[in-house]
Request: fold
Amino acid sequence: MRQARRGGVFLDRDGTIGVAPPPGEFVTRWEEFRFLPGAIDALARLKAAGLALALVTNQSCIARGLASVAEVEAVHEAVQRALRRAGAAFDRIYFSPSLDPEDPDRKPRPGMIERGLAELGLDRRRCVMVGDSARDVEAGRAAGVATVLVTGETYAHEMERARAAGSDATFLTLADAVDWIIERTAGRVENGA
Ligand SMILES: [Mg+2]
Reply:
């Protein structure tokens, strides 16, 4: 009998699991990082449902000379330590240091999601990309996964573009999206499919 491949959730960082910095500013140190309310619990619920978790984040602060690769990795190591205590750690963390819109990894291009699909052996029909901006939705669509827009505090200025990008569902926060994601990623592979 053929084993159904696993589903997964790709998540943006700032504005999705962590508080987004003001426009033009960047979170480059763990001391500046704050999880959004309910985000850790939401990740733990997704993981408990058997879903792989991958962070996919644009970190152009590196290309801008505002942080080093090591500094961004240190933030992510601290994020992982905090999540591990809650049984909610990411299976993979991908970041794009680039500012180049042609860079295949920089969202809205789907390179990071494609790598996650391959490295984690996921079924893209059972995967969801969650983010708070139009480029997250565009990256998910380009990778052929379902998309969830979380509006949060960016609602006012991103909503119009994000709507135009056409997410499959829209919620205020990641926590509000968990039930939808679990349903959407539930096994749909029939015998012999
Ligand atoms: Mg974001």
